[in-house]
Each structure stands twice: as C-alpha cells, then as structure tokens.
Amino acid sequence: AAPAVPGYSPGFKKPPAMVRLKRKRLRRSEPAASASPPCGAVPRVPSAPARRNPFSSLENAPRADGTPKPLERARLPPSLAGESTSAVPFWQVGPGSSPAVAGVFLFPPDAISVLYKDLHLPVAPPEVPCSPRHEFPADWSIKTRLLFMSSQPFTWTEHLKAQEEAQGFAQHCRATETNLPQSIQEPKLSTELRCAFQQSLVYWLHPSLPWLQMFPRIGADRKLVGKASPWSQDEALQQVLMSEWSVSFTSLYNLLRAKLCPYFYVCSYQFTVLFRAAGLAGSDVITAVISPTTRGLREAMRSEGIEFSLPLVEESRTRKQKNSDVNLETEAADGLEMSNSTEDGEEPAPSDDDDDEASFSWLEEMGVQDKVKKPDAISIKLRKEKHEVHVDHKPESLALVKGTNTFTLLNFLINCKSLVAVAGPQAGLPPTLLSPVAFRGGTMQTLKARSINAKARVQFAYEDISSLEIVGPVMPHTLHSLTMLLKSAHSGVFSAVLYTHEPTAVFNTNPGNARPALSKECIHKDLSACGLHPKTLDQLSQCPTLGKYSIRFLEMKDYAYTWKS
Q1: 424 near 221, Cβ under 8 Å?
Q2: Where are the stretches annotated Disordered (predicted)?
Q3: pLDDT above 70 covers what percent of the chain?
C-alpha cells in the first residue's frame, strides 16, 4: 500500500470522528511519520505533483509547503491574501472581523499592520498621486457607504440627546448655515457640532415603503424577492402609486426650476437620471444626465423630440479623429509616396454615413449586382448605428439633456411605460426619488451612522483607532458636509473609504458647455435659497473633473485633501 500523506485523510472513506482522531495521532507522531520506510518497501519517487482527491474537503487535501490553509487565508487581511481592499466589505477589514472584548474590538495584528501602519497613507496609493488641495473635486455619484477613520474617537456622533436631534432636524428644514471653528478641542461637548451632524444625515425619499429597500434599484431584485408587494397584481393600486409619484416628480422639477432645489435623482430599475439646477456643474442651464441607456431608450427620446448628446461617445470620436490626423502627418513626414499622401489628404476615410448606392457600386462594376442579395434598410440602419449599439448598458451610453429639453424629458419619463418593471420583484413599483430638500410627497429619512472604537497592535503595544460608518444613499452635498464636520472635530486629520453605486460614477462627466459658466457671485445669488451650505455650493458649481470615475479614497492631513479615483 502507498504510504499515507501527512495531514491528508479522504473523508469519503472514513467518518468524521475517525478523521479527527487520525489528525490528532498524526500531530502527536509527526517525527515518526518522517522516519524511513520499513524493510522491503521500495521508496517511490514522485514524478508529478500529488493528485488531489476530488471527493475530499479542502481542509484535508495535501498542499505545498508554505501555502496557507483556507481558514488561515481567511484570517489574513485582504492585501496579504491577494485580494483588493476596495472590493472587501467593511466588516471583513474592520473591527467586525475580530471578537469584541468588553465593548472594545481588537484588530488582528497582521491586518492592522497593513491598515494602520500609517493612518495618513491611503489604502492603495493612487496611480497618479494628486497634489494636496484645500478642496476635493465634486463627486456627483451616489455613495452606498462611507467609512471614516481617525486616531481620535468619534464619540461626538454617539447618543445624541433628544433636543440635539430635534435641533438638527429643524436646522435641516430651515437650511440653517452652520459655521464651525477650524479646530474643536472637546467635540463631544460641542452641541453645535452634534446638531450639525444630525442635520447632515437627513435626506428626502419617495416612495417610502419601510419594509422595502428603495435604494439602490439597479440590481436589487435579489434583495426584494419574497417581500410583500400587493401592487404587483393590482392595476388600480399601481395607477395610484404612479399618480402620486408623478405629482412628487413634478414638484421636484418645479423646485429645481425655481432654484429652490439644487439637484435630485430618479432611480429606476434600469437607469438613473440626475437633474441639476442652472449654475451647478459649470452649466448656466438646467441639465439632466441619464445612465446607462440603450438604443431603444434613445430612439424613444428622439421620437419625442428630446435633443440630447452622448458626451463620452463624442469625446472618443474626437480623440480618434485627432489620432488619425496625427498618423497622417507622421506618414507624410516619413516620406511616403506623393500619390498616396495626396489621396489621403483629398479623400475622407470611409465611414458608416457613406451613400448606400456607392457602397455597392463595385457589384455593378463586376456585373453581379443582380446575383447578390443586398441588405435591407433595417440592416443598413443597424450597420450605421453599430457604434452606438455597442455602448448600450455601458458608461459610454451616458446621455446629456440641456435647457428646455429637460422639461420634455420630465413628461417623457412620466408617460414612459418601460420606466416601471412589468415582471419580477420590482413589478409595478415606481422609481425612487432622492432629494436633499423637502418636496411634495417626500418622506424625511436619515442615514445610519455607527462609530466603533478599536485597539490596534503596533510594535508590541496597543493604540486606539476609531472609525465611523455611514450607510445609505449618500448624495454629493452630504459627503461634503460630513468632511467639513470631521475637519473641525479631528483637527484636519482623517481618512475615508468611499463605496460608490457604480451606475452613477459616470455622472462626473463634464457637460462641455460652449458658453462660459456663471460667476461665483451670480451662483450664490441665484441659489442662495437652495438649501446648501455656501462652501458646498462652491464645490458643486465647479465643472466635473473626474470623468467617468468617482472618488474611492479621500484623506485629509494638515487641512489638505488628497484622493484616489
């Protein structure tokens, strides 16, 4: 019989109890297992790696020296286990991964050496480091989770008094401007800071169904399966829900047009729409961006007379045109034949917009035009639109609507049949409306906040590290408001990991205005009653610079920001 491999016991032959006993025996007699084989036994020279039994468990299978077991690998931090920390949930990299002792969490020493070797270093250094600035760029994507970290505790966010909570709600409804000092010595004792924290967590939602998670909507079918949805089979109830939703949607647009609402989101099960007031994102007119889109949706918008553009597609086309011009100049400089350079300069490159008859002229020259079946009009149209079809469901399918066309888009979305799912867990459920200010039919909601104190082992000693987790639909103004509070409460030193709702990351695309943007004074005058802090308004009025990406990591050190997108 072949000698047994240490640490390996085929589970399909012996019951689990015997397997455990055999493991104990092997651990106790490991030196004996390595002894020489008995007399007469011919030592086997392995010519290939041992083949793992497919019926055995992973824990029993033999592995090469130095390879960690699955359980050991699970205990390693993501960076040491070969995983990306940005894709790992908070509870696997944070304090929740280790047991709690008397209300204080303990990080694994190896994990904290990676996360807390230097608190002022990002989780993963950016490929192109940005220079420290006093303000980070506007991020128009919706965040699903924020994780702030600091060496100072977040006790000032805990156990708000009833009066502080009520004051925070009142300050939000009245759009009270809170100006904090640069540094607060005792944040826990600052009532003004605690009220401002409660104020920054408030947002408005429609429809509000407490037993359903109304955001995110894209890819949320799994979370909604099995939940009560009495409207899915009741057409009369669906009409009532859509009627109320239309009233709320119209109310939000009227507030936006009156410059009493800075922006709002429409989140359907297929796409998301961001409406922005004039003066924001470097535009002097109302803008709306839709992502992702499909050819069918774009055709329906064209048929309704909605003028829109595809900024990323146009940018790619312009870039390719510039590259082709550069290549032509390079070829001419290299001394190509004169005839070839003349033809390249006079004849345009073939495109999908060429005349259809000219495309098949070579068949007539060969005399086989009657023997070859030409494609029909639909095939020709699809061939011309192949570049547009290829971007469906991708960030490049972002559609930009400006000016009065946004009102036409409003009516289009209210009457669009495909806006609401007809089957599945979201059948009959109207899209979610998210707004930073109150509107007709909107329900006040608050983001969930949780602070955790942890012990980090650094060089044979334990140091305190604190984290603050914010969960919910975090809109751009909320992110900026929270950073202003942390700036004062933590003396300009903290870091944050941001989790983005991916379909909205492309909202950071520059709208590309031909006319100059409004001045800072005009923006503050026109949007003074929109409910945003003046500093937040300054940030959101800047032209987006992140493109189709969003901020993943944000750090402040010495009151200066660095970030990674």
Answers
A1: yes
A2: 1-80, 319-357
A3: 64
